[in-house]
Amino acid sequence: MNRRVQIILIVALLVAIVSGYIVWNVLGSTMAEAHKATPKGVIAAAQDIKVGTVLSDTDLTTIQVVGTLPQGAILDKKNVIGRGVISDLYQGEPILENRLAAPGTGGGLPTLIPAGMRACAVKVDEVVGVSGFATPGMFVDVLISGTPPGTVNPTEGTEVRTLLQNLKVLSAGTEIQKDPKGEAKPVQVVNLLVNPDQAQILSLASSQTHIQLVLRNPLDTQIAQVAGNDLGNLYKDPNAKPKPPQPVAVHKTVKKQAAESYNVEVLQGTTESVEKFNAPEGKQ
User: Fold this and answer.
1) Residue 21: in which H helix or E strand, if any?
2) Which among 23, 98, 167, 212 could bridge 192 via Cys, Cβ 3.0 to 4.6 Å?
3) Cα(80)–Cα(160) distance, rounded to whole angstroms?
4) What's the pLDDT band for 282 if we cut at 50, 70, 90?
5) CB under 8 Å to 262, separation ≥6 — which residues?
6) Closest by CA position to 112, among listed 188, 192, 167
7) Neighbours of 189 (CB within 10 A)
8) Which of 35, 94, 31 is nearest to 65 (CA)?
9) Radius of gyration of the chain (CA)
10) What are the residue ranges spanned by the domains of the chain?
């Protein structure tokens, strides 16, 4: 074998041996550090916890985490007890700071309302409430239907319009209210997250119109330009041909000509005068 080829093979073998040794040392040290890593106790949910719950000691447990801790992980129960949950937690899930309300704010619905926003309650029918589509975290549009002010014929003036779009549902549940007879009955109520201006609009609509919520895709944040609709449009035939315009009768006003007149010169002695007389009608 050529001496030059032998040298090349020997050098390649030495490089392979050195590279293998380096890789083995790196992997070995990494595995050793992993085995030596001390697990850390992280506070987690001992059971499924609903949004708005104020955490107590019985809601909490400790799980062991090896390696890098999740960002915002809490290591001491005293930093969790008494704080409200702002999104659902599940059994065994580490409790992070961004899942809890600020200390001292308690729990319930107020902890879910960001600064500058409002929670506005809207009564809905049983289909929306019982079927459960308006659940916390969903997004809805608000439709109103009613008779606009100034409508001459109320039976033909019912209109529906999209009032507000892309509102977040904070909570949904049942409240007890009195009917016109004074008897208590359950009413389905949905709390929507709105700004102050929207709160005024929604409050007025709740007292003057019928409100319907429609569900939308949470990823669809586009505000659509939707025209209103009225009852008469529901009965229109989409295949009907437009009717030709009807001739409009025009009444002309004939101006009456002024009656003709004539002058008569009258001589009385030395006195001369002119008398004016109107001609009889129809006489030229």
Assistant:
1) helix 3-36
2) 167
3) 48
4) very low
5) 276, 277, 279
6) 192
7) 17
8) 94
9) 43
10) 38-111, 113-234
